[in-house]
Amino acid sequence: MTKKYIYSNLTIKNRSFFKRLSHNKRFKKALNLIELSDNFSLLDFGTGDGYFLKLLKEKVNAKITGYEPVTDMFDQLETNISNEDFLLINNLNQTKENFDVIYCLEVLEHFSKENQSKLLKQIKEKLKEKGQIVVSVPIEVGVASFVKNLIRLSIKQTEKDTNRKNIFKALFLNQ
């Protein structure tokens, strides 16, 4: 029997202090990039388990929507977010609304360039005319990548392509 993939175990509930710290830090940084207002409509595009939705709700009393298209992740989202403070959707067509702010945090790196273009187009179509987008992707080149990969090796939480060759290629920006 395979162990069920629980997203929060890789991020905010990770056994590694460094992983917990880095994931929490990126969420807090994203929260502070835009001056949010209670009359805004917000979309978390690729919300995962909904942790960021909860942080948004603590900061602002706005209309918040969580979009998670991956079925297994959407099931985790519905388990984690059990109140009526959020609209949870697994298909963008479930809402006709356009949003003042769209967050897309640590999502795009999981897709090919072609699919990234499609996702960015979907985001743009859901954004109000004067809306704002916050996008984050992990830094996987240079010294930051080298340190990240050393930590991954030391805590035995490597990615599928973590090896000495790729670590040094990323360190020297040669990908």
UniProtKB/TrEMBL annotation:
<keyword id="KW-0489">Methyltransferase</keyword>
<dbReference type="Pfam" id="PF13489">
    <property type="entry name" value="Methyltransf_23"/>
</dbReference>
<dbReference type="InterPro" id="IPR029063">
    <property type="entry name" value="SAM-dependent_MTases_sf"/>
</dbReference>
<keyword id="KW-0808">Transferase</keyword>
<protein>
    <submittedName>
        <fullName>Class I SAM-dependent methyltransferase</fullName>
    </submittedName>
</protein>
<dbReference type="GO" id="GO:0008168">
    <property type="term" value="F:methyltransferase activity"/>
</dbReference>
<dbReference type="GO" id="GO:0032259">
    <property type="term" value="P:methylation"/>
</dbReference>
